[in-house]
Amino acid sequence: MRINIVGAGAMGSLFGGLLAESGNQVFLIDIWKEHVDAINNKGLWIEGLSGNRFVKIEASTKNEEIQGKPDLIVIFVKSYHTEEAANKLLPIIGENTSLLTLQNGLGNTEILSKIYGKEKVIAGTTSFGATILGPGKVLHAGTGPTAIGELDGKLTTRIKDIAEVLNQSGIKTEINQNVLGLIWSKLVINVGINALGVLMRVKNGEIVKGEFSPKIQRALVEEAVQVAKKKGIKLIHEDMLNEVISICKKTENNINSMLQDVIRKRKTEIDFINGAIVKEGEMVNIPTPFNKMITELIRAIEEKYEKQINI
Ligand code: NAD
Predict the structure, then answer these.
(1) Mean pLDDT value across the chain
(2) At what angle do helices 213-230 and 274-283 cross, to 10 degrees?
(3) Is 6 a pocket residue for ligand 1 (Cβ < 6 Å)?
(4) What is the pTM of this model?
(5) Within a 10 A sphere around the Cβ of 260, how many other Cβ atoms?
(6) Active site annotation includes 186
(7) Which runs of E-coded beta strand occur in the chain?
(8) Measured from the CB, is residue 130 less than 6 Å from ligand 1?
(9) How many angstroms does the Cα of residue 7 sit away from the middle of ligand 1?
(10) How many CA atoms lie within 13 Å of 288's alpha carbon, on the beta-carbon side?
(11) pLDDT above 90 (res 31)
(12) By Cβ atoms counted within 10 A, which residue in 157, 219, 232, 287 is the most buried?
């Protein structure tokens, strides 16, 4: 399959590398020139769970530089860059090109659908984990299930083909006919872990310990579940709080991605996670005071990156 990865950071590089190794024709597109140059000059270095090696793969900073139209474009920019990245895709979208988002947070499928039409878009979630180590270098840090589906739940030939290609690349993938429920369930998990981990600067396992943190986690998750239910979303776990707690325990040594962003003083995806619950809550008249407060606290932290004191 001919696949373009847009946003070849941690996840885009890892997925691109794995897909290229299994024989697909893969192009990486990223605005980070140093990274693109390193990949073109030396290859993409992947280390970690799937082994240490260079993968030969082409990369570019511009969509226009890539000839032909791909069968699939995988979007792996951060959610706050989706709109900007999506708007630049027109030159590489052909009649039979599908757009897949496996990003975290809410709103990515909506942005892509608004620009290119719902029928072009497929979505999903992944439990793979990756970290950029430097230009041209990525760490394969976590492996777990990936699920994809059509927005209308249909079992189409293209969704089966794409799942097969992912599976052949070692990315264990299932087709899910409730993709909205899937995205919302991952959202609720991120709602209960990411920002809270940031505020306390702790790994996932610590979040569920002690007197206060579990109480805040419960409130954040309950608000999100209420919003989802009011919207008629069928979450994939019966007891979401229990699921969130269990994930914190299973990944007790993980530094969640929002905390990694804050440690590096980078913009976070807060507006697409807890902030999305607030926005969606307002639309269906469900109050979300805990999510509102935590969203504003994270925004305040971002605003003060350059004023932080280092003791
Ligand atoms: P990242 O910051 O490592 O990579 C994003 C890349 O997008 C960067 O290299 C950036 O230069 C590039 N970019 C920005 N604007 C662009 C544009 N207009 N065109 C092309 N490239 C552009 O982020 P990541 O950690 O790989 O995360 C990507 C998405 O996947 C996020 O939504 C994240 O929540 C989700 N996710 C991440 C992980 C993980 O372990 N890292 C796991 C699951 C899901």
Answers:
(1) 97
(2) 40
(3) yes
(4) 0.96
(5) 17
(6) yes
(7) 2-6, 25-29, 44-48, 53-55, 58-60, 72-75, 98-101, 121-126, 129-134, 137-142, 146-150, 173-175
(8) yes
(9) 6
(10) 31
(11) yes
(12) 219
